[in-house]
Amino acid sequence: MELRLPLRAAHRDERRGAHVSPSAARAPREPHDAHRLLQPLTELPDAIASLKKLRNLEAAGNQLSAIPDGVAQCELLQVVDLSNNSIRSLAPLKDLKELVSLKVGNNQVSGLELAYGELEHMNTLSAPHNRIVETPRGIGQLQMLVVLDLSHNKLEQVPMEWGNLTEKKLQQVRLAGNPLADPRIRRFVESDAPSMVKDLLNHVRKHGFKEDAGGGKKGGKKGKKGKKAAASPSASDDDGEDNIADLLAAMAKGSDDELD
Fold first, then answer.
1. Which residues, 6+ apart, have CB-to-CB distance to 89 below 8 Å?
2. For domain 7-207, is the CATH number 3.40.1360.10?
């Protein structure tokens, strides 16, 4: 059951959720206040931090430019819909561990930093039409994910870790509208067919972008140099032994001369 309330009224039943839409931004006190119902919200009150049991926050279709820091105190939040706003950062959501559904499409978000390792029940991650340049590490840990929509962003690579997502759970992966570098992935995402998901996951398991691949190769080259370098110190050790022997011999000769 979804309870649609002005945010200030959510105190009365915060367990069920708070729906904040333009048409419910303020409850009119007088007839002449009725026009205010049509005014979109430009901010959420800091008092939202007091809603400790809030589980559902819906504020789609407003003119929000930021998420108040107080949202980080709503640790039981499960459903968040902030689509169609002008939000740039999801920082207040990054430590929430009970999220099940997050929808932030049509904003100005550039990153998706969340507590992926703790989000055991997340089934929907939707952030189309934003400014996301790269996918954050950890999405591959969302074993209950059903819908993943990152379409119409600025993604060039699909990480290999996506291959860890559960085929039997995942039903939709939307990546259309991104400047994807891999031509096969571009072909996969042209269709939303269920078979595409399986083909995509199989492909990225073998050919997905591995962020530390460059470091590994460089490390290998350094390893070869390391072997050569290891040989040099042994030669230096031999030279050192020879020098000590010469020094002892010279000392011994000096002693003989003194005796003579």
1. 66, 67, 109, 110, 111
2. no
